[in-house]
Write a structure and sequence with these properties.
DNA-binding; HTH hxlR-type domain-containing protein; WH-like_DNA-bd_sf; HTH_HxlR
Length: 145
């Protein structure tokens, strides 16, 4: 694993250097909230990330242990990016970003998820984290058979 050279030891700097740009947050959004996990699915997002930038960002997420890469059980020539436990720990942060964004952009955001969050944030986060773990496990099980 390649080690990223850090500008400082500040915890906020550490976090920002990993996922502090718009593309990383959008990839994390797609992994966590939109069920996307393939290169083509990420490319199909409304924001139109370039292939080169997407490759760079996915490699950073891999190097940092936020995602893992497995062969697709449906197509041996393609890969899936699965969120790791380290990445799943970011769900509460992403929920806060989602909530903040929806407060100031009321037309955006996944309405059912926002309703769950507003009803019981702690429960919604736990359920989302469990769902992500279960999805990852089902892919891992499918690829090991």
């Amino acid at each position: 694993m390649k080690t990223m050279e850090r500008r400082s030891t500040c915890p906020i700097n550490f976090s920002v250097e990993i996922f502090g740009d718009k593309w990383m947050l959008l990839i994390l959004r797609d992994l966590m909230f939109n069920g996307k996990n393939s290169f083509l699915e990420f490319r199909a997002s409304a924001e139109k990330i370039s292939s080169a930038v997407l490759t760079e960002k996915l490699n950073t997420l891999l190097e940092e242990g936020i995602v893992s890469k497995v062969v697709s059980p449906k197509n041996a020539s393609s890969f899936l990016y699965l969120i790791t436990d380290k990445g799943i720990e970011l769900v509460p942060v992403m929920v806060e970003v989602l909530e903040w964004g929806s407060r100031y952009n009321p037309d955006g955001g996944p309405k059912p998820l926002l309703a769950q969050i507003r009803q019981n944030k702690k429960k919604a986060i736990a359920e989302l984290q469990d769902k992500l773990r279960n999805e990852r496990q089902s892919y891992v099980t499918a690829t090991s058979n």
